[in-house]
Structures are given as structure tokens and as C-alpha cells.
């Protein structure tokens, strides 16, 4: 079942040309389009389904610096600032609040890892604290569980995934972008070895710069052009509840449940680190690169051998650009939720907080995460094809860094001074065989 996402109108006419074409209108593509337009560029944003309908409306809505890999902290810090200013400038309340994030644990090893992480974060001006059981009790008076400690970041935030991408897209339109939904990009045309046009199902758009922000579809798009992009697909589950008493104004994570307070007075609930990996021929091809992440995360992951495997084998990458592409065949990717996970999470949440007795699931949904081997996104030019750029592979934590990732992508496309050092987000690192940095905290 799809979670509700605000629907916005498309522009009537596809432009014949644009300075930049952004493919994919999730939070990343929308924010990139916004920042490109603010820099004065003519931008066309094309989306095969509708704005924000895939991961960007299906996530938990946590905007966190907390527990990020060292390399991602600067982007997360900048993003929190941009959430504030972009919400204000959009003129829409997208639910962004700096209400803090608190994780709880009973595991001494996890607590020790958090203590180490705090030192790294502090070096980058992110101030988090370890909470003792007494401090947890003070902060969460309704809690009846026993915890060894907590990790608290007061400057972290939350936002409403169903509202953010559509509201920011409308704001970007006021800066001049055109938005084209039900408009899949089938592929690229090149001239003299560089990008010259995007071929969409509604016709071509001439351009010298294309930013692909296609989430779970980016790797397939790249394959059509012989560009390697190792990405694994993981189906995750979340749900929203009926309205219930406020036990936290922000986001709170225990070992068997995670919640985020919603504007509608309910919670978004899920289980941390759980999902189903879609086995594909690509995943076997890139097995060596994915091995360290797999070792670290496999406890919470199931494997599924199904349609994705057959699809990848049978469709190959050679579709014609004058015929319907795989992107038109699935307008909105809508994997089934794993109800065992939401039922388990909700039941253990009520044990921790009996005050929530009677809370019910209003709606559950699945979403497909696009994970790179080192769980760090790619925000980068593609060396093999001048004029082609990537902002993808956000590995299950791209919503919170969306505003800054979009800005960084825009800086890279235009060659402006980058918001943060882009070196950690290069495409080459995933395909040139170098050893990848160990995975950060997830
Ligand atoms: C259950 C769940 C919980 C999560 N929780 C959090 C969280 O709390 N905090 C956090 O920071 N992150 C979270 N994430 C991750 C976060 O949602 C994603 O990292 C982020 O939304 C990625 O945004 P995106 O724009 O790259 O991708 P998407 O939102 O998936 O958008 C990609 C868009 O590209 C379009 N597209 C693809 N190919 C084409 C094409 N050829 N032509 C036209 N359009 C195309 C797709 O239709 C899609 O709309 C979660 C994810 C899930 C699934």
C-alpha cells in the first residue's frame, strides 16, 4: 500500500531544451532542481511516476546527524540548516522541527561504540550526549523498560515525508523549474562523446547536463549506457499509527522499535536495521564490494529471490529509446510491507510505554532502499560520460541529508564551490577496485 503523498500538478509543455535535466523527483532530485534554479539555470525535472512517491514519502522522517559515518557528518550538519531555511522559504510547514533524536540500548558494546562516535561528532561541531538510565527516566517518564544508556542529539530533527518533496518542488517551480510527471527518462543521447539530450517518453529535451537522482532505478539507467553503478536493493517496512499520547516530540529508537512523532498526532513506527535484500545477478557480480556491509548488517536482513532476479536477467540493458522502457512499466515502486515487522515493533513499543495501549496501525507500507557497497551515496560527475552526473545510492538515510545533498549535486553540476568536500561521494570509488572505507554506523 502506498503512503499518502501530496499530489502536485505537472507543467503542460515539455521544454525543447534545458540547461540541466534532473531525472527523478524524490527529495534529492527536487532539492537539486531547487538549488540549480536558484543559481539561475533553466531546469526540467522529469519523473516517471509522481513527485516524492517512492522512498521519499515512505521513510521514517528522521533528519539525523546522529550515528552517521564520519564522512557524512558535514553533509548532515549542513542539511539540518537547510531544512530550516527551505521550509521557511517554501512557505509550507513540512513538519521540520529540531526536536532531537534519542536512541536507547541495553547492549554495552553498542553504548561503547556510541561513546566513540560522540568524540568524532564533536570534532565536527555536532554535540551529542550519552544519557544515563536516570537521565532517560527523566526525559521519558512514560517509559517502563530498563535501558543501559542512550545517545541523544538535541540538534537533530524530523520532517513529514509525505509533504516535503512536493512542497519543495512547488517552491522550486517558483524559481522557474518545469515539472513533468508520468514522464520517464528512457535514456540519453550523446554527441562528440558528451551528453546532448535526454529522451523521455514524451519527447527529447536537448541539454548538456543531466543529473540522475533515480533512487532504486539509477543503476538500471546507468547500465543502459554501459556505466557501472553497484547498488543493492533492500525492501524496508514502516507504518503510521492512529493518534496517541505524546511520549516524545521527536524521534526515539529502542532495540525492537523506532518511532517518530507525526504532525497528525500519531507515530511512524518501524524496526531498526530490518529489511529484505532483493537478490539480483548484479549483486553477485558486485559481491566482493558488498561483503563487508553484508557481514555487518546481515543479522537484520532476509534474502529474497524473486521477480527482481528474473527481471534483470531477461530485460538486459538494451531497450530502444523510441519504445516504452522498464521505467514506464512500474510508475511507482510499491513493495508489500512485512507485517510481522510492524506488529513486532508496535507490540514491543507498548510494553515499553503502556500509556500507548490501544494504539493501532492506520496504514503500513514498504519502500525500496538503494544501497551502495559502503552505504555512502554517490554525488558525483561520471568520468566516462561528460555532462552526466549522479546523486543516488543514499543507502537508507537520504531523506535527512536531502536538502544538502541536492545543494552539493547542484554545485558539482555547475562547477561552483561545493557546500562540503565532495571527495567522499565520488563515483569512481565504487568501480575502480580500491578498498572501500568500513561502513559507518547505520
Ligand atoms: C522504510 C524507509 C525508511 C527510511 N527512513 C529514513 C529516515 O528516517 N531518514 C532518512 O534520512 N532516510 C530514510 N530513508 C531513506 C530515504 O527515504 C532515501 O534515502 C531518500 O528518500 C532517497 O531519495 P531519492 O530522491 O534519492 O530517491 P527516491 O525518493 O526513491 O526518488 C527517486 C525517484 O526517481 C524516479 N525515477 C527513477 N528512474 C527514473 C527515470 N528513468 N525517469 C524518471 N523518473 C525516474 C522514481 O520514480 C522516484 O520517484 C528510509 C527509506 C525507507 C524505504
Protein model, in words:
With 442 residues, the protein is α/β, with parallel strands linked by helices. 30% of the residues lie in helices and 22% in strands. The longest helix has 18 residues. The radius of gyration is 21 Å and the shape is globular. The model has no long low-confidence stretch (mean pLDDT 95). Flavin-adenine dinucleotide binds next to helix 1, helix 2, strand 13 and strand 19.
Architecture blueprint of SSEs:
Elements: E1 20-23, H1 27-38, E2 43-46, H2 55-58, E3 62-63, H3 73-90, E4 101-105, H4 108-123, E5 129-131, H5 133-139, E6 149-153, E7 157-158, H6 161-174, E8 178-180, E9 185-191, E10 194-200, E11 203-206, E12 210-212, H7 218-224, E13 232-241, E14 251-253, E15 258-261, E16 267-270, E17 275-278, H8 281-285, H9 287-297, E18 301-304, H10 307-315, H11 326-329, H12 339-352, E19 361-371, E20 378-381, E21 388-392, H13 402-414
Parallel strand pairs: 1-2, 1-12, 2-8, 4-14, 12-21, 17-18
Antiparallel strand pairs: 3-7, 4-6, 5-6, 9-10, 10-11, 13-16, 13-17, 13-19, 14-15, 15-16, 20-21
This protein binds flavin-adenine dinucleotide.
List keywords for this structure.
442 residues, alpha/beta, ten-stranded mixed beta sheet, six-stranded mixed beta sheet, 13 helices, binds flavin-adenine dinucleotide
Quick recap:
The chain is 30% helix and 22% strand. By secondary structure, it is of the alpha/beta class.
Amino acid at each position: 500500500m502506498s503512503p499518502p503523498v501530496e499530489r502536485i500538478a505537472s507543467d503542460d509543455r515539455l521544454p525543447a531544451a534545458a540547461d540541466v535535466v534532473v531525472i527523478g523527483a524524490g527529495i534529492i532530485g527536487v532539492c537539486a532542481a531547487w538549488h540549480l534554479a536558484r543559481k539561475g539555470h533553466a531546469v526540467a525535472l522529469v519523473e516517471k511516476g509522481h513527485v516524492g512517491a517512492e522512498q521519499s514519502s515512505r521513510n521514517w522522517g528522521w533528519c539525523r546527524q546522529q550515528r552517521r559515518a564520519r564522512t557524512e557528518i558535514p553533509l548532515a550538519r549542513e542539511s539540518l540548516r537547510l531544512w530550516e531555511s527551505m521550509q521557511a522559504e517554501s512557505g509550507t510547514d513540512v513538519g521540520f522541527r529540531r526536536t532531537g533524536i534519542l536512541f536507547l540500548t541495553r547492549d554495552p558494546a553498542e553504548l561503547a561504540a556510541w561513546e566513540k562516535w560522540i568524540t568524532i561528532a564533536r570534532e565536527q561541531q555536532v554535540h551529542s550526549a550519552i544519557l544515563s538510565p536516570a537521565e532517560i527516566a527523566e526525559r521519558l517518564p512514560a517509559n517502563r523498560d530498563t535501558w543501559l544508556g542512550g545517545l541523544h542529539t538535541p540538534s537533530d530533527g524530523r520532517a513529514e515525508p509525505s509533504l516535503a518533496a512536493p512542497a519543495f518542488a512547488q517552491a522550486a517551480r517558483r524559481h522557474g523549474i518545469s515539472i513533468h510527471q508520468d514522464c520517464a527518462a528512457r535514456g540519453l543521447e550523446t554527441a562528440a562523446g558528451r551528453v546532448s539530450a535526454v529522451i523521455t517518453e514524451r519527447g527529447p529535451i536537448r541539454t548538456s547536463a543531466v543529473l540522475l537522482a533515480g533512487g532504486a532505478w539509477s543503476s538500471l539507467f546507468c547500465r543502459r549506457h554501459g556505466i557501472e553503478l553497484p547498488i543493492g536493493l533492500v525492501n524496508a517496512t514502516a507504518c503510521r499509527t492512529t493518534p496517541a499520547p505524546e511520549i516524545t516530540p521527536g524521534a526515539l529508537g529502542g532495540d525492537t522499535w523506532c518511532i517518530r512523532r507525526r504532525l497528525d498526532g500519531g507515530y511512524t513506527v518501524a524496526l531498526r536495521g530490518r529489511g529484505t535484500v532483493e537478490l539480483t545477478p548484479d549483486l553477485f557480480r558486485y559481491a566482493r564490494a558488498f561483503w563487508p556491509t553484508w557481514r555487518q548488517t546481515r543479522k537484520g536482513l532476509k534474502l529474497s529471490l524473486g521477480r527482481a532476479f528474473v527481471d534483470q536477467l531477461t530485460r538486459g540493458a538494451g531497450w530502444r529509446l523510441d519504445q516504452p522502457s522498464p521505467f514506464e512499466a512500474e510508475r511507482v515502486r510499491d513493495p508489500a510491507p512485512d507485517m510481522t515487522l510492524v506488529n513486532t515493533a508496535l507490540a514491543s513499543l507498548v510494553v515499553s510505554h503502556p500509556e500507548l495501549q490501544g494504539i493501532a496501525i492506520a496504514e503500513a507500507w514498504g519502500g525500496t532502499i538503494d544501497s551502495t557497497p559502503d552505504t555512502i551515496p554517490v554525488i558525483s560527475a561520471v568520468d566516462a560520460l561528460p555532462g552526466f552526473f549522479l546523486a543516488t545510492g543514499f543507502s537508507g538515510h537520504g531523506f535527512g541529508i536531502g536538502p544538502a545533498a541536492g545543494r552539493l549535486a547542484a554545485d558539482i553540476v555547475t562547477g561552483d564551490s561545493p557546500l562540503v568536500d565532495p571527495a567522499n561521494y565520488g563515483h569512481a570509488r565504487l568501480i575502480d577496485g580500491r578498498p572501500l572505507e568500513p561502513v559507518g554506523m547505520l
